[in-house]
Amino acid sequence: MLGCLRTRRVSRFFFLSLCVILALALPHAGLADTPAPKFDSGDTAWMMISTALVLLMLIPGLALFYGGMVSKESVLGVLAQSFAVCCLISVLWVIYGYSFAFTAGPNLYIGGASRIMLTGMGPKSVSSLASTIPESVYVMFQLTFAAITCALVLGSVATRIKFSSMLVFMAAWFTLVYIPIAHWVWGDHGWLGGTNIDKYPGLFGLGTTLDFAGGTVVHINAGIAGLVAALVMGKGYDFDKRRRNTPPYNIGLSLTGAALLWVGWFGFNAGSAVTSGDRAGMAMLVTHIATAAAGISWTAVEWMHSKKPTVLGIISGAVAGLVAITPASGFVDVTGALYIGAIAGVCCYLATRIKYKFDFDDTLDVFGVHCVGGIIGAILTGVFAVESIGGTKGALEGNINQVYVQILSVGVTVVYCGMVSYVILKLINATMGLSLSESDQRIGLDQTQHGEMIHG
């Protein structure tokens, strides 16, 4: 009997000891069985450079581009808008933006909450969307896209929106418009073209939307929101149906800003390859060629129409080319880039005349350049896509269906962004007001919103 009891005690001892050993050993075994990700140093270095280039596009690039085109009484105010938006969206991005835009969610329309406050993300964390670089780099890269998209919107109402209302509008628009559309097109299992779609073949079952670096997510999105803002807020005191609103403060500043945008756009487009390989190299080349072609074509049509080739015209044409090549940059060759740039330069020039014909005040031509340029680029991506470059055939290679997919994705973006932007703007206007008074617009943003002056 005593021997039996001793045997049971010994058995229990060994059983409990085994449990303790397993409890201590299993975590270590798990770590051994799950090797740390092997990041590619070249990809990581390129993506960090690309991230800095995209940030350069916003501050100071876009800030100077917009700031040089407004009246001298509002230059600081417009510079401050870009800077403040950069700060605001950066904070919101890490709190919830990245998580809901780029992680897998409960459905195809919004991401999940697994990265709220970047919970669980460490120095060796990796995203399924960018497996060769640290997730921290991918978070930062996508942050810059979100920030510049929001800042682009403001060009349509730059000199007549209250600073406080601008901040509220940007926070709401980022949350309700940018995040969902970014997830639809780029996110994990997004319904328009998100990666890892294994059970749902893209848009309405027709296929995947091609948007390499933001034709729909960034430019059409921002352009439609800008148009809606211009319509809801009405015309500024200085709007003239026959000409520009007011003489620009300093076209030199705008040219400097446009040059910074051009250089930074290599990070925007080539960086969207998320590697430093051959696709990034082609994206860089076609970005440059399309931009140059658009600058030439805009200047040519302006020269014929207005008898003068303006500096503002050529830099606006270059930006239109940058916009149009954005969705196509990872899918087309140089021939496609030349056509896309040339077509965009002409069409965007003509689109900037629309506001005078239909009497709406899109102050810095956000609709004419970004929305129209983005639509042209998105649709022509479906025409000129080359399978050997991006893995998808375009219409010229026999896949006409891709054009239909591109058109439908443009329509979805326009309708959703337009409707939600309208609701947000109307709610803000009804509660805290959107527009500065006419007298405050005359005095300018610098003094009325910030109590400062550009000089003196």
Q: How is this structure best described in words?
A:
The longest helix has 32 residues. With 456 residues, this protein is mostly helical. It has 16 helices and no strands.
What would you say about this model in short?
It contains 16 helices and no strands. The chain has 456 residues and is an all-alpha fold.
Protein traits:
mainly alpha; 16 helices; 456 residues; 66% helix; disordered N terminus
Task: Classify the beta-strand content into a percent band.
Answer: under 5%
DSSP helix fraction: 55-70%
Distance between the termini: 103 Å
What's the alpha carbon Rg, rounded to whole Å? 25 Å
What shape does the CA trace take? Answer: globular
Task: Characterize the biggest β-sheet.
Answer: none
- The residue ranges in which pLDDT falls below 50 over 5 or more consecutive positions are 1-34
Structural class of the secondary structure composition?
mainly alpha
Number of helices in the DSSP assignment: 16
What is the H-and-E element order? HHHHHHHHHHHHHHHH
Q: What oligomeric arrangement do these chains adopt?
A: single chain
Number of strands: 0
For the residues shown, what is the average pLDDT? 88
How does the SSE layout of this entry go?
Layout: H1 2-33, H2 41-67, H3 75-102, H4 135-153, H5 163-186, H6 215-233, H7 251-269, H8 278-306, H9 311-325, H10 334-351, H11 354-358, H12 366-384, H13 387-390, H14 401-431, H15 438-443, H16 445-450
